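User: quick one - fold this with F0G bound?
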Amino acid sequence: MIDLLTDSGTSAMSSNQWAGIMQGDESYAGSPSFFRFENVVQQITGMPLVIPTHQGRAAEKILFSILGGKGKYFVSNTFFDTTRANIEFSGAEGVDLLCEEGKHPTIPAPFKGNMDVEALKKFIIEKGAANIPLCMITVTNNSGGGQPVSMQNIKDVKKVCTEHNIPLFIDACRFAENAYFIKLREDGYATKSVKEIAQELFSYADGCTMSAKKDAFANIGGFLAMHQKELAMHCRNLLVITEGFPTYGGLAGRDLEAIAIGLNEVMDEHYLQYRIRSIEYLTNKLIDAGVPVMQPAGGHAVYLDAKEFLSHIPVNQYPGQALVGALYIHGGIRSVEIGSLMFGKYDKNKQLIPAPLELVRLAIPRRVYTQSHIDYVAEVIIEVFNNRHQIKGLLITEEAPLIRHFTAKLKPV
Ligand code: F0G
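Assistant: Sure. Structure tokens for the protein plus F0G:
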């Protein structure tokens, strides 16, 4: 089986990370492992206040419990599903303002993760800045195809936020992949190191949330980092009730060591070149075979356009999830739907309001698979594509009211 369900917590840790784990200090308070972790996060983000959490969504839960609530709006290029769920759970609304290019899977553009700055200005005027406690940019834009955000876009968004006194946070899960894309694609960055680019990117933000399960190569972990003391004080209070003491959050000291080491390893440009190139390699093989995929290749995953791939299946029969099932049955490849099962809503008559895109994500764990695995994946997808007319749509038989895609049950139509 090839497990491309997620690149989260599934990466291979290096021998250095494992060595770090052996040196973890498990003091309840003031562990030296925390100070090593804090120092690395401060160096990369420039943010002085660093709060460890057991994973990314714990950081989100803390942040949005404090800032959220009924009548509030949070804006983003695209919120990831747990982020959106944490916002909605607080009673607030999450609004995605993705640039136009990002909404068209098969039209290539260099920075399809960018936020629509004009839409942001309009939204602020419409709802009032006082009702928007925070703007968040997700780098790379996971739910929108792993597409990068340009430095220029981050600067432009920051300018609008500053004018209206709205703090800007980065969802930094894949910051190194985004920084590498900036190096490759944006004028003026070719000779800068990934670390310098990442530091500049974070310099425009007031804070960030991070899942260390992605661009820190760790199996578990995350953090919140920020500049503002009062907000950090509230976050730390909530951390103590829900996660643990401020110097370990929900983590063991050894995890903090693995994250600290991983955060530096991920900025190695040879590693990033291999990673971005392997995803491009798979994407190009699929394009050559006529398979509809998100273009250009994203940072951590290949995204199939399921609406095109299974154009005979209507969106209310979840073509993305049907394709996920077909890839698993045919070739033992596990993937995930990012479409109407994940983001669909119901109207008053219980009719599906579909998500804008029906994607299937094949996320590549870091430092795990080789070129032969990727060749096998391409063969399976192409075979399934050539026999696509046999695939049937799905009906939901069981679902939860919130983030239903984690536990829903479906059957073929
Ligand atoms: N933000 C983004 C952009 C993510 O991709 C994820 C997780 C999170 C936040 C939450 O982090 O899992 O540590 O709680 N994404 C995983 C995925 C689950 O498969 O893309 P977490």
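One thing worth noting: The mean pLDDT is 97.
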